[in-house]
Specification:
By secondary structure, the protein is mainly α. It is 72% helix and 0% strand. The chain is globular and about 60 Å long. InterPro entries: DUF2189. Pfam families: DUF2189. It comes from Pseudoalteromonas amylolytica.
């Protein structure tokens, strides 16, 4: 009987692209470049900004109309599925501008199907993580004191566990999603290669990623404080800046001719 070939224990199941080391405050430079992109493609930025703004606005409206927070989960899951696709459209706009081309809405729409398996797989991955978080949140909520006005001491277990679990999930999602969509759109690689590369890039630039995370949280809060109207500008700004961050950090075999 023929013998089976020995298994190579060093087989690489997912590649990892090399990353550049960047300065801690580089994300502010990405924002400056993103503002220039918005000025160069104002109409496309406005279209995508309106699309993204409708999503959080709809979630807030559903919560207000229904009087319950149960609608948040299906709404957020829907956003997780369609969000990365529209973000890919904005990445394409920034990419076209970087190459000196004139971006078009049609071209940006086609980018959503450049790597459909990877992009939808990533959307499903985010959806699964969100569902896991909602289930964990329900379990943690069982620790909430059954009194009308609980003291901080009574809330300590609930707050500590909730903060710990939520923080771990937030860090995990950020590391996974920081550069994964951009990698899959430009290079059409498998989802595992993109995810591993994104995690490695975040680990290699912890300082800059902390600054970038702080910027994202701050701008998202501003978006909600403005009744979601601010997202018209914030979402294109963050998407363009994310693309410039990807260009600055993820290495290519041939040096890029643009920033």
């Amino acid at each position: 009987m023929p013998t089976s070939a020995p298994i190579d224990k060093h087989t690489e199941f997912a590649r990892c692209f090399e990353s550049n080391k960047i300065s801690t405050f580089s994300p502010f430079h990405w924002l400056a470049l993103a503002l220039k992109d918005i000025a160069r493609a104002p109409v496309l930025s406005l279209i995508y900004g309106l699309i993204f703004t409708l999503i959080p606005a709809t979630i807030m409206w559903l919560v207000y109309q229904s009087g319950t927070h149960l609608v948040i989960l299906p709404a957020v899951v829907a956003f997780a599925l369609i969000g990365p696709a529209f973000a890919a459209g904005l990445y394409d706009v920034a990419w076209e501008l970087e190459k000196g081309h004139t971006p078009t809405f049609t071209h940006s729409l086609k980018s959503m199907f450049r790597n459909p398996a990877g992009e939808w797989g990533f959307a499903v991955l985010l959806m699964v993580i969100m569902i896991v978080w909602m289930r964990l949140a329900a379990l943690i909520h069982a620790l909430y004191p059954n009194v009308t006005n609980p003291t901080f001491e009574q809330l300590s277990a609930f707050l500590t566990l909730g903060t710990l679990v939520g923080g771990i999930l937030m860090v995990s999602v950020f590391a996974i999603s920081a550069f994964t969509p951009q990698i899959m759109m430009e290079r059409r690689v498998d989802i595992m290669t993109a995810v591993v590369t994104s995690i490695h890039a975040v680990k290699s630039n912890v300082g800059a990623m902390l600054v970038w995370c702080g910027i994202i949280v701050t701008l998202v809060l501003v978006g909600f404080l403005t009744g979601t109207a601010g997202f018209i500008v914030i979402m294109p700004l963050l998407s363009y800046a994310s693309w410039h961050g990807y260009i600055a950090i993820i290495k290519t075999k041939k040096p890029r001719g643009y920033e």
